[in-house]
């Protein structure tokens, strides 16, 4: 559907497509003087379109000499009001043609091309606002990346501290991780020991017998790990007692002293049972009995 609109600059009346005016929010360009204006505000009646351009200033001056400046009272010109079209009450058909053409105002109303520009944003930013916005966005993104990096580093350090503090429990629960933890401890000078549950190490049998000479006796021990996981070998402490029941000597045997060569460096496996033959030097002591204890140096005697 086409409407007639009047250019407020030169007064030219020309038709314009309603659909195109809606797409451009009503702003169109005059076909005569190229002025851009709101076509909806200057819609005129379609009965008598006035396509003649508005007279120039010189013609207006000449015409003012022969035409009275004010219309006489009661004349038709004084009572004449410009026709207005209410766009809200127009009943538009469903099949409105999408056309960008309009008439040039001649008698035949031949369609001509009408350029309709979009309405400019009424809110204009001050000079330099776009630069400041980009700079603010770049600064915010830079600080955001730095904060994210610091958070990640803090989480990694916290996780490393937790692994260091609970490395024994982790290695005991997940034996496959123990080699990784041991390699990591080499660089920082720590170790990954096995659990120390001296209460789960049972001495099943023990005896102290005379040896090949009077100065050497032999201690026979049967020891079992009743813990469900591998743990360290304990330290054995032997108290030698005389006929009065007094302790005359205490012998300390570390794992390196009583374990065979093929067992050294390995943990005391879960459920493992070993038989130990330990030579005991008594020299000239009068030994009538003994007491055998198993200990871990940092846990005390058991």
Write the topology of this structure.
Blueprint: E1 2-6, E2 13-17, H1 18-23, E3 27-29, E4 36-38, E5 43-44, H2 57-66, H3 76-79, E6 101-103, E7 111-113, H4 129-165, H5 167-173, H6 178-188, E8 201-213, E9 216-225, E10 235-241, E11 247-253, H7 255-258, E12 273-281, E13 289-296, E14 300-301
Antiparallel strand pairs: 1-2, 1-5, 3-4, 6-7, 8-9, 9-12, 10-11, 10-13, 13-14
Account of the 3D structure:
It is a single chain. The protein has 302 residues and is α+β, with helices and mostly antiparallel strands. The protein has 7 helices and 14 strands. Strands 11-10-13-14 form a 4-stranded antiparallel β-sheet. A hairpin with a 6-residue loop joins strand 3 and strand 4. The chain is rod-shaped, with a radius of gyration of 54 Å. The model is unreliable at 56-112 (pLDDT under 50).
In round numbers, the mean pLDDT is 75
Low-confidence stretches: 56-112
Strand content: 25-35%
Helix coverage percent: 25-40%
Order of helices and strands: EEHEEEHHEEHHHEEEEHEEE
Shape: rod-shaped
Structurally, the number of domains stands at: 2
Gap between N and C termini: 105 Å
Side by side, the strands of the main sheet go: 11-10-13-14
Q: Would you count the extended β strands for me?
A: 14
Rg, rounded, reads 54 Å
How many helices in DSSP terms? 7
Largest sheet descriptor: 4 strands, antiparallel
Helix/strand/pairing category:
alpha+beta
């Amino acid at each position: 559907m086409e409407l007639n609109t009047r250019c407020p600059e030169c007064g030219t009346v020309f038709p314009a497509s309603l659909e195109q005016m809606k797409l451009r929010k009503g702003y169109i360009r005059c076909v005569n003087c190229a002025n851009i204006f709101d076509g909806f505000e200057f819609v005129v009646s379609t009965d008598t379109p006035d396509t003649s351009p508005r007279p120039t200033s010189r013609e207006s001056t000449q015409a003012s000499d022969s035409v009275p400046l004010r219309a006489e009272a009661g004349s038709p010109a004084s009572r004449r009001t410009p026709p207005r079209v209410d766009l809200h009450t127009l009943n538009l058909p469903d099949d409105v043609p999408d056309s960008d053409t309009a008439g040039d105002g001649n008698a035949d109303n031949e369609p001509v091309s009408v350029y309709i520009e979009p309405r400019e944003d009424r809110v204009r930013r001050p000079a330099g606002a776009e630069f400041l916005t980009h700079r603010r966005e770049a600064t915010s993104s830079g600080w955001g990346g730095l904060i994210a990096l610091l958070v990640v580093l803090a989480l990694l350090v916290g996780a490393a501290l937790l692994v260091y503090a609970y490395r024994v429990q982790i290695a005991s629960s997940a034996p496959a991780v123990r080699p990784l933890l041991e390699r990591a401890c080499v660089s920082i000078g720590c170790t990954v020991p096995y659990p120390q549950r001296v209460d789960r190490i049972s001495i099943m049998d023990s005896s102290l017998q005379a040896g090949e000479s009077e100065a050497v006796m032999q201690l026979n021990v049967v020891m079992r790990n009743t813990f469900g996981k591998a743990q360290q070998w304990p330290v054995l402490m032997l108290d030698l007692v005389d006929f009065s029941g007094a302790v005359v000597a205490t012998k300390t045997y570390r794992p390196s002293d009583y374990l065979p060569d093929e067992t050294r460096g390995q943990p005391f496996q879960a459920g493992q049972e070993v038989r130990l033959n330990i030579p005991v030097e008594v020299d000239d002591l009068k030994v009538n009995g003994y007491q055998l204890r198993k200990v871990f140096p940092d846990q005390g005697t058991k």
